[in-house]
TrEMBL record:
Organism superkingdom: Bacteria
Domain Starch synthase catalytic: start-end pairs: 5-221
Reactions catalysed, as given in the entry: [(1->4)-alpha-D-glucosyl](n) + ADP-alpha-D-glucose = [(1->4)-alpha-D-glucosyl](n+1) + ADP + H(+)
EC number: 2.4.1.21
Matches recorded under SUPFAM superfamilies: UDP-Glycosyltransferase/glycogen phosphorylase
Record key words, sorted: Glycosyltransferase, Transferase
Organism name: Chryseobacterium polytrichastri
GO MF term (any one): alpha-1,4-glucan glucosyltransferase (ADP-glucose donor) activity
Protein name, UniProt field: starch synthase
Primary enzyme class: transferase
């Protein structure tokens, strides 16, 4: 069924990241859907490792300039855009000096998770939602990839619950084996600032607990990796949300 508006929200995509299954899968899915005549957009963080010159990123002034309040602090939202090399497929990058300039993704050089990973995910989720609304482009399908993207459905179904903009969009969550890490113990207070409380994930807040939590807020869950880690696989088996085993890229449109 072509002519769908498909939004990919991801933390990784080839060629911006080169050596992960997630990056390769998202690239192939987005390209296939684009080439089949769908209106496809991709949103991802502008991590410090992504070369603006190499990939010809440029700031979109009309979309930038918004402030997002995280934990009572104003954080400026900068939107950059590029076309996927060799393709007319637009990739939007969520940027902020405080959260995304550093050269590592989620862990410092010693392997310690960043204290503000939770805030970075909140900023990313809200940045994507607010920018889509500013674009005045309403997706039919929202496909989430990567743990930061798992904050999007939680926000859509709580903080943005009374906002009808995304009411008809169907949300698909892909599960991947990502390295788990604990979140800052004050994450509950930060979410409470956005009137979000009562999440089971807050009992033991971590990358994985929020991915598992987000399964309750989406329309379909699919395995992004063929074999999942024990905890993730258990949650996948137990969820009452519609689910699909691993699909090759040629079959993904059946899910949509």
């Amino acid at each position: 069924m072509p002519n769908q508006k498909i939004l990919y929200i991801t933390t990784e995509m080839y060629p911006y990241q080169e050596d992960s299954n997630m990056a390769a899968v998202v690239n192939k899915m987005a390209l296939k859907m684009h080439q089949e005549g769908n209106d496809v957009r991709v949103f991802m963080p502008r991590f410090g490792q992504i070369s603006e010159r190499k990939f010809q990123l440029h700031e979109v002034i009309r979309l930038s300039g918004m402030n997002i309040i995280i934990n009572d602090l104003d954080q400026p939202l900068i939107i950059k855009v590029a076309s996927l090399p060799g393709e007319r497929l637009q990739v939007y990058f969520i940027d902020n000096e405080e959260y995304f300039k550093r050269k590592q993704y989620y862990f410092d050089d010693e392997g310690t998770p960043f204290d503000d990973n939770d805030e970075r995910a909140i900023f990313f989720a809200r940045g994507v939602i607010e920018t889509i609304k500013k674009l005045n482009w309403v997706p039919d399908v929202i496909h989430l990839n990567g743990w930061m993207a798992s904050f999007v459905p939680i926000y859509l179904k709580t903080y943005y619950e009374s906002d009808t903009y995304f009411k008809d969009a169907k949300i698909v969550l892909s599960l991947y084996n990502e390295k788990d890490a604990a979140f800052d113990k004050n994450i509950g207070e930060k979410l409470k600032f956005d009137n979000i409380s009562g999440l089971k994930a807050l009992d033991n807040p971590s990358v994985q607990s929020f991915v598992i939590e987000s399964m309750n807020y989406v329309d379909a869950v699919v395995k992004g990796d063929e074999f999942l880690d024990e905890n993730l696989d258990k949650a996948f088996k137990e969820t009452s949300t519609a689910k699909s085993e691993y699909l090759d890229v040629d079959s993904i449109n059946q899910l949509y």
